[in-house]
Amino acid sequence: MTGGIDEALALNRDISELGARFNIGIAVGSQTIALENKQLAESFKVVRKVNRNGLILANVAANTNPRMALRATEMIEADGLQLHLNVPQELAMREGDRKFKGLMDNIAEIVHLSPVPVIAKEVGFGMSRETAKQLFDIGVHILDMGGRGGTNFIAIEQARSGVLADEFASWGIPTAASIAEIVSLDLPIVVVASGGIRSGLEAAKALALGADIIGIAGRFLRVWSDQGRKGLEEEINRLSYHLRASMLMTGSKTVAELRRKPLVISGPTAHWLAARGIEVSKWARR
Description:
Layout lengths: L5 H17 L3 E2 L4 H5 L5 H9 L5 E6 L4 H10 L4 E6 L1 H6 L10 H11 L4 E5 L6 H9 L4 E3 L8 H7 L15 H9 L6 E4 L6 H10 L3 E2 L3 H32 L5 H4 L8 H9 L5 H4 L2
Parallel strand pairs: 1-2, 2-3, 3-4, 4-5, 5-6, 6-7
């Protein structure tokens, strides 16, 4: 989730060690800073050093030069490569990118060259089914939809003299709606649900909605910052227990079974999906 500074070195070491212990995959933050300054690479490389056999994901912007993107993978001996999509954040930054022409072509070239699976990752603004279909068509079959509801990067940039009005702080597709939009395509896409998932029960709901994998960043970062490694270890144990409790209470032995349980969608999510022409009742009649 981070890298490039001394504190990130400590965080990435601790979280990677816990990843190895609990068999949880780890995705680092954007490695662009280390690609530009090799002296900062250690804060990323430590993830693989302390977790030799675990699942490790590299991370660069989707508009990164393809050859540079492959160097990010090599840097940490990654098993997969995340390409983060953060157009709203860039537009909010005074120094951010303003040109995105050819982005899909660049992603397609990275997919063509990459020796490891490529994951398209939104950073908190969600992903529509139209975007998901475009990415699928160019060979990206793992999507981290990073929905609205977690860390708000427009609000963060506004706090540091951003250039978008505060009204944009609510921009994006909520996590639940984003999961459902992608799942409704009925394509062989691995869906990673992230964006505001803070508990085992929320993880269970996302899995029941159709996600294959859960991603958590902000919650773990805050716990580690406040309580250190010991506190984060306790938080992972608590989240795991609550997820398993949710599965037991629904009679689900596996995640696959949980995804087949009837799920009633109501409120704003139901209204959103109905407006998008997605049949809400199909989840309740499984």
